[in-house]
Amino acid sequence: MRELLASGRSLPEAYHHSLLLLEQYGEHTPCPDYNTTQKECSMTLYVEQPLAEPRISKLFIGGFMELEQYRQEMLDGILDFEIERGNWEYTYHARIAEQLPFIRRELRRNADSRRAVVDVRDWKHDSAEGNTNPACLQHLQFFIRGGALHCKVLFRSNDACEATFMNSYALICLQERLAAELGVSMGSFTLRANSFHCYEKDFGLLEGYCRRIRDAEEPDELCYFFEGDWQELMASAAVEIAEKVEALKNRP
Predict the structure, then answer these.
(1) Whole-model pTM?
(2) Tally of domains within the chain
(3) CATH number, domain at 226?
(4) 180-to-47, 55, 98, 132, 192 alpha-carbon distances in Å
(5) Residues 109-113: contacts with CB within 8 Å, 24+ apart?
(6) What tens digit of pLDDT does each residue of 111-164 get?
(7) Quick one: which of 99, 184, 186, 190 has the fewest CB in 10 Å?
(8) In angstroms, rounded to a whole number, what is the distance separating the alpha carbons of residues 63 and 250?
(9) Strand ranges (E), 48-106
């Protein structure tokens, strides 16, 4: 499998670069588990300044409502009740949150530590026979270097068009929260996907995204600013999201 590196100052810059690389160099491979084919490579996406503006890409599935709900799912566990009901086996939040106290203790104990690792993969569950939904996110590692918190995450599989931006955004929000708790600044964010792919049903979507990236006169045409723009929109979505979650909790 081809190894590719997409880097940028901001998250949208690195993300857009990764889409172009996948379209150009991705190899067509079978995906029998889902009865389809895919375009695939191994991708490392490096973001130098994760909070740099403009912070929001226009090239992802969903809008401010979906992005805010996913952020809350990842950071606050608003859908963890589905585990207790037996509807879901896990959430990323549930697996990550129980390990964060160790991360805080370890980085306070030794700011130069290389041990601040969160294991998201539960091998007993994710490798169980018949499991059709093993975790895509495998682990996170945090480093404090030069007074800044750096985050490196590993996905075994990452859907370039339908998941990568939202995954990255939410994980950067987690990194931002942890940096504030530790009293350090934000460092870089790195997402590694061993299988960075686009399913056949989304080939047209990938082509359309890449066409817009190439045709843009200025990179910022394909982005929204978070502060003063999407920050307010996402905050305004909180009430509707809370109502939707409450309705889910109250369903029969």
Answers:
(1) 0.97
(2) 1
(3) 3.30.572.10
(4) 19, 19, 19, 37, 24
(5) 111/144, 112/144, 112/145, 113/143, 113/144
(6) 999 999 999 999 888 888 877 889 999 999 999 999 999 999 999 999 999 999
(7) 99
(8) 26
(9) 56-57
